[in-house]
Amino acid sequence: MLLIDKKSSKPLYNQLYEGLKQQILSGELTAGSALTATRKLAQEYEISRNTVITAYRQLELEGYIYGTRGSGFYVEALPPQSDESQAAEPFTPPAKERPPHYDFRYGGIDRNVYRNRAFRHSLNNALADLENRNTLLYEPPEGLFVLRQCLCRYLKRFRGVRCRPEQVIITSGHHQSLSLITQLMPPEKYEFAMENPGYRGTRDVFSHQNYAMHYVPVGPGGIDLPSLQGLPPSLISITPSHQFPLGQIMPVKHRLELLQLAEKGGHYIIEDDYDSELRYEEQPIPSLQSIDTYGRTFYLGTFSKTMAPDIRLAYVVLPPALSFDFAAEYPFYSSPAPSLLQLAMTDFMESGEYEKQVNALRNDFRKKHALIRSYLEENFPQGVRIHGGGGGMHFVLELRTDCTETEILRHFRQNEVGVYSLRPYWDDPDDSPQNQILIGYGAIPLNRLPVNLDALGDTLHDLIQI
Fold first, then answer.
1. Residue 304 contacts by C-beta under 8 Å, 6 or more apart in sequence?
2. What are phi and psi of 423, to 5 degrees?
3. Overall pTM surpassing 0.70 (yes/no)
4. pLDDT tens-digit readout, 140-166
5. What are the two backbone dihedrals, phi and then psi, of residue 270, each rounded to the nearest 5 degrees?
């Protein structure tokens, strides 16, 4: 018996459809059994025949019943339904831990670019551009030519990168840039080597693609070159201008030796230039790509560290010999970066406002960096040591203590201070030094930094041994 409520706001055909579907799923209507003829069912429930036909057609469309010409509709044979008592419990997301009050988390930016009038103006210009188009099409898979052309000029001026627009591919972030390289340089032809410690996101992309993995120690000059000797052709991922997370800068002699090694061994270098624009104690260091006369370097850049973490715009500069007609090679691939953002960034850069944004950010970070260094040197001259200062938005802090890293992190957390482990960045987490922690300061407003530093210092006093 079906329940049809003619006073309900729910359409009659929908009530009939739901009722019949439930009878089929529960087994009340068995496979192969005939449904009541549409005319007879309409008379039985005093509804229009069209209502019944509409409900039957929807059931037929979804595969619950099938029609036979001149014979009517029959229940389809469906796989048995699982017992509700054995059904999986509804997923409940795990409760997120409340962030500490004094948080030195890495990766954030306190300068909100969405309040920047110039950037909002660029966004409006991009909207006007799109509004004036008669048709909206998929954009070129390699990204808008105007942005790639603009990037070539910018990178040449500020990073020494020499490239043509056809070498530049716009991506939706660092992971997508790396994934693109895995398509061009597959694991069947190349192995993968990276700094140890190094950025875990990079490691995950290549390990998940089944590359033979090599984790290479990092010394004062960056990645250890003797450890690379004898490797088969490999992709070598490095952060030469600000090693992540330890902060070393690879000297030019070391860079030239690495390029020679790559040429001789058939390797390619992935230069992750993630925060090189943010130098405070000297001018930004020229990129490795700018001195690569062999054409062995993939250059990776991002706007996440200078605009906003969620801007989702990055880029890859291919080695000259590997540039190709992207659209012809991948005809069904479309750019993952929204046209709106690409047009806005082009306008923002061409107007000179992006350079102002970077300079303002660098100035803010320089002040914060100086304040932190001054505080630590004044209050803990023998108790702590900074690794990787002078640029970026983080450094590694080494403590003079016998406490384990777990004890250090727990002690800070109990005092509502957020500092972070280095273990995720090591191939073997147990190789991570017990007395070193990661300190980020990009997301802390300058006027809040003294309060955060006092909280940091109070905990350090309890931990370090002078």
1. 173, 174, 311, 312, 313, 314
2. -55, -40
3. yes
4. 899 999 999 999 999 999 999 999 999
5. -105, 105
- Of 25, 141, 5, nearest in space to 75 by CA: 25
3-state DSSP assignment of residue 298: strand
Cβ-proximal residues to 308 (8 Å cutoff; 6+ apart), any chain: 109, 112, 113, 114
CA distance 218 to 225: 9
Q: Nearest-CA neighbor of 142 among 183, 103, 180, 110?
A: 180
> Among candidates 416, 377, 424, which has minimal Cα distance to 397?
377
Q: What is the DSSP string of 261-288?
A: HHHHHT-EEEEE-SSTT-BSSSPPPPPS
Name the one residue in this structure whose structure tokens are 């590359």.
Answer: 211
Handedness of CA 327, 333, 339, 342 (dihedral sign): negative
Which of the residues in the chain have pLDDT under 70? Answer: 81-89, 282, 284, 331-332, 465-466
Length, in residues, of the chain: 466
Identify any residues that bridge with 395 across adjacent strands, giving them in sequence order.
439
For 124, the 3-state DSSP assignment is helix
The answer to whether 457 touches 375, Cβ cutoff 8 Å, is yes
Per-residue HEC secondary structure of 186-245 comes to CCCCCEEEEEECCCHHHHHHHHHCCCCEEEEEEECCEECCHHHCCCCCEEEEECCCCCCC
Which has the closest alpha carbon to 458: 375, 371, 369? 375
Specify whether the CB–CB gap between 183 and 330 falls below 8 A. no
Buried b / exposed e across 294-333, counting CB within 10 Å, b at 16+?
eebbbbbbbbbbbbbeebbbbbbbbbeeebeebeeeeeee
Task: Report how far residue 146's alpha carbon sits from residue 153's, in angstroms, rounded to the nearest whole number.
Answer: 11
The CA distance from 424 to 405, in Å, is 13
Beta bridge partners of 420: 438
Shortest CA distance to 155 belongs to which of 270, 295, 282, 303?
A: 303
Coil, strand or helix: which one is 456? helix
